[in-house]
Amino acid sequence: MIEGVNKQICSRCIYDDTIPYITFNHEGVCNYCLQYDELNLMYPTGEKGMEYLRQLAATIKEEQKNKKYDVVVGVSGGTDSSYMMYLAKEVLGLRVLAAHFDNTWNSKTAVENIRCVTEKLGIDLYTHVVDNEEYSDIFHSFLKASVPDIDTPSDLALATVHYMACRKFGVKYIFEGHSFRTEGISPHGWFYMDAKYIESVQKKFGSKKIKSLPSLWMSSWLKWIVVDKIKKIRPLYYLDYNKEAVKDFLTATYGWQYYGGHHMENRTAYFTNNYWLPKKFGYDLRYCEFSALVRSGQWTRETALEEIKKEKPFDPQILQEIYKRLGLTEAGFAGLMALPNKSYRDYKTYKKTFERLRWFFYILVKANLVPLSFYLKYTKSYDQ
Ligand SMILES: [Zn+2]
């Protein structure tokens, strides 16, 4: 993305005009930076942010007082979700149930991290493991579909598992470890996920029925948010969250280990971000991450522009594992890489339904039942 002639780069972050739907204002600042500023105003940090979180914790405790747990925290063994367990339990005094979706491609470090942090904090763990052959078949289907969203089945399953844990124990709150200040806002059109999408790809390319992979069907999702009123909260939005400092803290306090990079706690996520996306689609997620660090003042723009020039690390052993588990030859895999690139628009999805129900989701956003990011990304039409 950095090569090319006459390329405009945002004067504040490192997004350039190859990023979909980017626009620049008269000062050369991109719309993603302006969106960041809006979020920054909406979610104050420091004392104000902490006060909000304490009040929220008090409300949650009152509401959940007759239940075993106050909150479900989704965990992956990564930095953000491990910190989230500490925050919920030790800082906010909540009774935490950790929920994990195991797509059978976890790294050993991630598994060990989940174990040591939950054990040391005395947190119960709810895990859903997908059948590994079923998952391999679905993953293979997404490679055949030739879309960027090959990790969508996992991403959506883990969101579903959070709701399943809530339903089982009568919990109304889910804490998610996302931070727009460190992870950034991925460009519109890069990624898409919904249950119908997964089903249609699997129907077209797969050989197995979806049985053990949890799916967020629109009917169950709406029931969980509208009837059961299960709310998703992103507490990191209210914190001055410095990832480097948090990593050191987790290692020193819980024996947690760094797994060597964002999304590297899971091997399909690693393959997606470090091979499939950059090599096949030219998407480099470091643009989002580094731009976020620049916007939040954790990095200078110069550092980000230097760092992005470095080759993205990739451990070729992961390819051998993929060949083996998916029953692929090297030539077969090369064939998948060479297929014409497609997108979710080439398959059946809920997208048009989400767009038609934009007004309805707006009401749900106002009632804090649906995240604003969902509304902005999924209910807006980007076809024109
Ligand atoms: Zn920008």
How would you describe this structure to a colleague?
This protein is mostly helical and 384 residues long. The chain folds into 3 domains: 1-42 and 288-306, no CATH class; 43-283 and 315-349, Rossmann fold; 351-384, no CATH class. 51% of the residues lie in helices and 6% in strands. It is built from 17 helices and 5 strands. It has helices at residues 31-42, 46-63, 79-91, 108-121, 132-145, 152-169, 195-205, 218-227, 243-254, 267-281, 286-295, 301-307, 317-326, 330-338, 351-356, 358-366, 372-378, and strands at residues 71-74, 96-102, 124-129, 173-175, 231-233. It has a 5-stranded parallel sheet. Helix 3 (79-91) packs across helix 9 (243-254) and helix 5 packs across helix 7. The chain is globular, with a radius of gyration of 20 Å. It binds zinc ion (ZN). Zinc ion binds next to helix 1.
